[in-house]
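User: Structure tokens for this complex, please. No commentary.
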Amino acid sequence: MIETRDLVVRHGSATALDQVSLSVRRGEMVALLGPNGAGKSTLADTLSGILSPAAGTVRIGGRLAHVPEGRQLFPDLTVQDNLLLGGWRSGERDTAFVYELFPALAQARRRRAGVLSGGQQQMVAVGRALMSRPDALVVDELSLGLAPNVTRDLAGHIVRLNAERGLTVLLIEQNARLAFGMCERAYVLEAGRVVAQGPCAELAGDPRVVRAYLGGAIGGGTRS
Amino acid sequence: MSEFLTYLVNGLAVGCGIALIASGLVAIHRVTGVVNFAQGTFAVIAGLSASWLLGAGLPHGAAELAAVLIAAAAGLLTGLVAIGRRGTAPQSSLIITLGVAVLAYAVEIVAWGDQPRSFPGLPGSVTLPGGAEIQRHHLLVVAATAATFVLLTLFFERTYPGKALSACASNPYAARVIGIDVTRMGLLAFLLGGLLGGLAGVLVTPLRPISFDTDVLLMVNGFAAAVFGALRRPGLALAGALLLGVAETLAAGYGYAAYQTEIALGFMLVVMVVQASRRATIHEEAV
Amino acid sequence: MKRALPGVLAGAVTLALPAFLDDSALAVYIFLGLAAMVTVGVSLLMGYAGQVSLGQGAFYAVGAYTAGLLTVQGGPPLAGLLAAPVAAAAFALVVGVPLLRLRGHHLAFATLATQLILLSLAGQLEFTGGDIGLQGIPQFSAGSFEVGGAAGYAYLTWAGLALVMLVTRNVIASRAGRGLRALATSETAAASSGVPVGRYKLAVFSLSAAFAGLAGGIYAFYVGYVAPGSFPVLLSVEYIVMAVVGGLGTVWGAVAGAAVITLLVQVLNVVGTLPGMPSYAPGVLSYAVYALVLIVVVLFLPRGLVPSVAGRLPARRGRSRPRAARPDPDLRT
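Assistant:
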């Protein structure tokens, strides 16, 4: 469903991604771990077509939606308008299913997205992505800046979307505990290269991964 | 008192013309981050074309409509040059629109000569109960501007393309994430800017003859008003424009006509500097 | 030194040229030099301090009016010429304190507004001669030496330009120049590394005004009268065109840009006044060439015609409004 081969992406003269190859099969949920500056968000932007690769290939077997890092809502637009605009590519104009999925948003539909709580904003971001009726979802830093219980709740939604609707998910996280809890398989990205990959159970036993990503508390990933 | 009322309505009409130019500036700046120096040019193009088309025998209404459409086309062309090329930074785009404005001089002189042109607006006047006499064309300008602002608001808040434009203004990165072509939306904003500038041109030309180089004054006035709304808020820009129009007209009416320019520009400078220092304080607090 | 060779060569050619030129060619030569003087300042301001001034014509006007006012009443021309850059710099200092709080297009419009206000005032005030301006400015003289012919003004102009270029070169090479370079790249970064951003910007702004003022002073003596109509907004645009064409932030680029544009416009003037051409042809042709050259250079040659010398477009600094784009963690270190 999602496949990159020897992907190279540059920001000016700096190489952000260096020969990254990864694949996510249809219906699979895969995690991508890595510290700040590793190139995770660059990968997300490249998958969603905002950045173009300098070399290598990206293959997406269906419609891909992107929940960007930091939510990236339209803060001065209402929740309803944020969701509606999510249907720009798909032509979807019916937002009812999003409110069914996230009942908490139903009362907030006329409020400006910028004034919502972090958790609600993340719901809008996920809802907006779902409005494009995607086959695959790239979720960038779901847990960023959210309280643990809010994160758990959202993570539960993602897991259900994957299990019940067969949505393919690439979960980009700094929080390895969360990612390992949700996914079967993971890639570890450092300084633009894939440095480790495999089943989460195996990676969780890799001493380098333990030291770098499981040593601290939740959210206490390393910084480059 | 009746004299004052007449000046007031005159001033509102002048302010409305400024407001239309300002709203075009705001629309383009919100979506693209570019301050379009050719905004006054659109008004000049429309004013000159309308006068030319009327001279060629087109009836009122049709001539003005065609002139506004010509201005809209000019807006789109300006946009294509200014932001059509990938990776053009807003500051470069400002310089490009400056180039477009100068290029327009050449085109306008060849097409319509270098002498000021005008055409008659709505004839006649109405007398208010207090004895104040008000030209009907002034009322037309005010009404048309009011209608335009209502339509603009509806467009941005109620229609899907309008919402998409607002989205590009609100968060261009997010707009790209959901698949909106931000450059194409920028071109739409330039088209809208051309339309609004053109409308200003056909409405204002009967009040003051227009020539190829009137654009600087129109542009600077429009920018002064737009700055009042920090180049982002059309409502405040409208308020700024009306204030500016009334202040200028009153100054002229009570014998300070010579200082109109100083009033408008001084107003703009003060607003900008105050805004900048306020922003600086906010920024320092935020850090 | 090999590096000095082009400079020496240019100097020799500059000195020799007036002997071979007739009066109308000398006029072009003088205006070219004056334009180059102003453009060096614009280029320094845009390329190093990252600020766009659409009002450089205002400083040119201040210099011209200063020289004119001081000498019309019989003051010594040398004092008038020396006062021209000083007055322009002082004026820039005064308006610069509030205006340089503004950035990007705000500053561009503020400087444009300054010029419009100044012209409007000059057109109304008694002592500046209103719209008619100042007539009968004497020939330039210093002591018993009087500049009579155009050749004398050519030497004066190019001596002024040499001085301007020398000063600029030294500024760029100095410690302050390195700070300025940082300023052009990123104001925030420059500030956080201890560059006194505000003071540097003000200094460059005033210096560029002084250059324009000097050019304006020479202009006043050469032409013999000044009026508001001599300093249209388009004049300021021309300097931007020249600076951008030559390559921002480069001394030679500014001179090259001024030369290319002045000569091009001159050629078009000749073409435009050929028999059979409509009366508006010279104006139309020069507008068109300014515009097209500016647009083409900004789009396709953003580093200018002298790209070997690192000319940086201030535009690279990105948007001057707060960028709504997401802070990219992959770019953070």
